[in-house]
Amino acid sequence: SGDFLTRLAADELTKELGVPVIVDNRPGAGGNIAHDLVAHSPADGYTVLNATHMAINRALYKSLTYDPEKDFAAVTRIATGPTVICVNNKLPVKDLRELIAYAKQNPGKLFHASAGYGSAPHLASVLFESVAGIKFTHVQFKGGGPATQSLLAGDTQVNFATAPTVMGFVRAGRVRALAVSSRRASPAVPAIAGAEEAGLAGYDFTFWFGLFVPAGTPHPAIERLHAAMVKGLAKPDMRDKIALQGMDATPSATPAAFEPEVKKETPYWEKLVHDSGAKVE
User: Fold this and answer.
1) Tell me, what's the pLDDT at 62?
2) The pTM is what?
């Protein structure tokens, strides 16, 4: 989802700003390589980062080469979406109530295919465990694709996944979707119940991607980037493309509105990582 949204954003910024916006994909270390590059780039408005909440990495990694709070200025949120809670077809459960009951009757026997420590699907499952009062046995994979393949093979029984990773298999009847991880059903993931409807009140997990620039970037440059991105996100075809990723376009009203939202969420994400017990050297 992140790479796809980055390319979509770059295309729209190119159209709106009239200059080529080049995507420089820097994978690895949970995004830290890209974060570090942008944090130490000139604050001139020409280097932009698409990222999820960086407090996740601060809680997850022993040390960082950048400061998530001090080294970036927020521009706008791009999109928000839930994960999809799926099970292997052989597991005898049809909704979240039955999944929770099965987990309680069979402690330690449900293996969860995780897309990697600190990923949105991993943290969605950690919050689920906390609210439902159950425990999965987590198996970490290098990404959502391998995690879903293990679910298909029956090596794992549960998978919290981003919509693009699993919806093809759900539609083909190869895995069973029980719910999305948001409290209510998501327009971007049609025909799948929200968590409350499927049997778990009090559970609500979504993740987002947003644009950031190096701290100290001139305010007019930030405003120009924000205006261009928001204009792009208002286009029906852009919203449709984002919906295919199982997410909804959710632009921030202003950069000044996005910044405090990010700060307000910091304790939430840090607690989730702490509760997961995950730590990366």
Assistant:
1) 85
2) 0.88
